[in-house]
Amino acid sequence: MRIDQTAVAADTRPVEHDRLLDAPNFIRAIRDSGYVSLASALAELIDNAIQAEATMIDIGIRRDDPRAFPTITVEDNGIGMNGNELMACLQFGGSSRFDSRHSIGRYGMGLPAASLSQARRVEVTAWQAAGPVRTVSLDVDEVMSGAPVLQAHEDGVRGVSASGCRVTWIGCDRIEYRRLAWLDRALRRDLGQMFRRFLLDTTVVRINGEEVLPIDPMMLMTQENGASAHLAFDPLHYEIDTGRGSTGMVTIRFAMLPVHAWHSLDKAAKRRIGVVGHGGVSILRAGREIARGWHLMGGKRKENYDDWWRCEIEFAPELDEHFGITVNKQGVRPSPTLREALEPDLESLARLLNGRVRQAFEQVKFEAAVEGSCRIAAAADADLPVIHTAGRAHGALAYRFAARPLAGDSMFELTLAQRHLDVTLNSDHTGFGALYRPLQDMGDVGASLRTSLELLLLSFARSAITVGLSDCDRRDLVQTWGATYGRMLQHT
User: CA-based angle 463:469:472, to the nearest 5?
Assistant: First the structure.
C-alpha cells in the first residue's frame, strides 16, 4: 500500500511510505500481545487443530540443554493445509475463516500472535494425503535484522497421520515455569478445564504422550466421600439480539457442591478436588472456556461461601460483540445490553445459593451439636416401651436431629422409618429463635441446657408415636402444639 503525505509547507516534499507497518517494531509489539499464560497461547493452536477436524493433538515439551529455552511442538491429525493456506497461516489475519461465527476461531491472528508471544521462532509444517510436506517459518531475530518476514520451503518430517499439521516453537523465552514438571502440571490443569467439553467428546490431547483429562469446575463429575455436586436449577436460556438482524443463545447452569459430604475434608483435599479457589463463573464460547472469575453477578460481591456453588455461561460466537471478545479470546467485557439481560437474574440466584450454602453449614454445625443428645436417647431407648415397625420390629431406635425452614406453624416434624426416628426442627418457628438458637449460640456454656431441650423434644416425638395415634392425628397434635407454643411466645 502506498500513502502520500501532502506537504504542509512550501519547502516540504511529500514523503512516500511503501509499507503499512514497520515489521521489526510490529513483531516486538506482538510479542507483548497479552497472552496471560502459556496455556492460553497453546489454546490458540488447539483451537486451530479442532477446527481442522483433528481428533488427536500431541503437545511435546523438551529442553535439549538445561540452560536452553524449551522447545514446544503441537502436532495434530487434522486435514492439514495446502501451499496457499500454509503461506497464509503465519500472516496476521491471513485466515480463510476470517470473522467466522461458526466455530472456535475467528480472526486468523491466533497462530502467529500466540507463537511469537512465547517463542523467538515458529515453524509450521503441514502435509496432506499423497502431497508434499511443506514448512513455513517466522523468526523474530531474522525479522529484526531485516531478513524476509516469512520463509517457506518444501521439506519437513511427515507426521504419523495421513494429513495434519505440526507447529514448533523454538526458543520459548517467555515461559513462566523454569521446571518442566511444574509446567506440565499447570498445562494439564488449565487445558483440561479450557477444553473439557472436547475432551469429554472425541478429542484427545496429550502432553509428552500422557493424555490430558477433562476438569469440570462445576464438579458434577467429581466423586468424593460418596458425593458430587448437583445442578441447583434447570438450565436458563436467554435469546439475545446480535444487532445484525439475528439472535444468539446464552445458556447458564448453576451447580451446588455437597456441603454435608465435603465440609469435613482438610484444606489439602479441598484444594486437590477444586473446592477452594475455583468458585465463580466459567464462560464458554463455542464449548471452549475463554474466561473464569466473577462475571455478570451485578452488585453481589464474592464471599467464602461462594466457593460452594458454581456457574457456567455458554454463548454462541454470534454474540462475540456482546461479550467483548478480543483477538486472543481471553476474558470478557460484557456489553450494557448483555448485563441488563443477565445480571439481575444471576445476582438474585447467586444470593439465593449463597443463602443455601450458609444454611447447609448451619445444618452441619447443628448436626454436630446434637450428636451427643441422639446418642443419649438411643442408649435410653432399650429401657423404653418397644415401638413396633414394619420389617425389623424390635430393637432400640436410632435418633437423628435436623433443622431447616418448614411450612406451617409446627415446631418440628417427625418421621419413623427403618427404626430411625427423625426429628426436623422448624428454624423459622418462633420457638427456635427464642429458645433453641440462644442456647446454641452460648456454645459450651449452654451445652447442658441445650441437651436437656433436645432430649425433651426427642422424648415428645417418641411419645407421640408410642400412644398409637394415626399419622393424621399425630401431625395434628404436633401442629396444634407448635402453633399454641408460638402464639404464647408472641405474647412474652
Answer: 120
